[in-house]
Each structure stands twice: as structure tokens, then as C-alpha cells.
Amino acid sequence: MRRLLDALYDGAAWLAALFMVALLIAVLLSILGRQFHFNIPGIDAYAGYLMAAAGFLALAHTLKKGEHIRVTLLINALKGGARKGLELWSLGVATLLALLFAFYSCRLAWQSHAFHDISTSNDATPLWIPQLAMALGTMVFAIAFVDELVLELRGQRQQSTSGEALRNE
To answer: pLDDT, tens digit, for every residue of 24-76?
Structure first.
């Protein structure tokens, strides 16, 4: 199960990286279009969709690598049961919020599909298409939080610390 979950997080991260490369290409095409006087309709909107997709799909991998911003002032002052209790409470609340985020993201994509919502930009893209990346990213993010909560409950959670965070403290 651990390998499957890690593959899911890594797959979402690779997909996010792919969207970042596509974003770079879209931005470069937009710049070249301005310089050489050609227009690709909707390129700015597509760049926005790609940026959002990359951000949402990277959430779970970033969480699992310990790169999300954490305010550790209080938790580092606690020891033993109090620290474990605060960790469990924090992970419980974060898991609940992530599950709600995933639910409402999926619901938004479904409603956009059902109501035939389209972009107000000149690209007229059906909105459910770019919203799928948000829904997928938030679902994987919620799975990652459930994973973290279960690992904490079992006492198997590794406290990974970012190298950047260590340099700043």
C-alpha cells in the first residue's frame, strides 16, 4: 500500500511538472506572439489553467516531502502526549478541510459540466476541463492528509523537515 500511495503522490508531482513545462511553452508563445505580431486566441487563459493545474497537482507531493509551511513555535515547545495530541488535532482538522476541499472541487467540476459553463475569455473553454486538474489535485491532497493522520495514529509518521526551513530557524 505504501508503494501505491507514494506512486500516486509522485505521479501527481510529475503531472504538475508537465503542466509547468506546458505553462512555460504557453508563456513563451504569448511573448513571441507579441513580438512577431501573431495571436493565439486564449493563450493567456490556457496559461492560467496550466498554472492552476500545476499548483493543485503538486499539493500532495509537497505535503509528503515536508515542504508545506508549518508554524512550529507552539508544537516544538510541547513534549510527549501534549505534542502528540496537538499533532493529531492539527492533522484531524487539516484532513477534514482537505476532504471538504476535494468534495467541493469535484462538485464544482461536475456542476460546470452539468450546466455547460464556459470560460468568459475568448477561448470559450468548457470550465469543467481545467477544473478536473483542481479536483484531481485536491483528491490526492486529501488522500495524503488521511495518510499522514493514519501514520501519526500508528506512531509511524516521519517528521520530515525542509532544508530551507532549517536554514531559516
So the answer is: 999 999 999 999 999 888 899 999 999 999 999 999 999 999 888 877 788 88
Q: Long-range contacts of range 154-160, CB-CB < 8 Å, 24 or more positions apart? A: 157/87, 159/66, 160/64, 160/65, 160/66
Contact 152, 88 (CB under 8 A): yes
Q: Helix or strand or coil: residue 90?
A: helix
Q: In this structure, what are the phi and psi dihedrals at residue 47, rounded to the nearest 5 degrees?
A: -60, -40
Nearest of 62, 61, 60, 49 to residue 132 by alpha carbon: 49
| Three-state secondary structure string covering 134-160 | HHHHHHHHHHHHHHHHHHHHHCCCCCC
pTM of the model: 0.87
Instruction: Retrieve residue 147's grid coordinates.
Output: 495518510
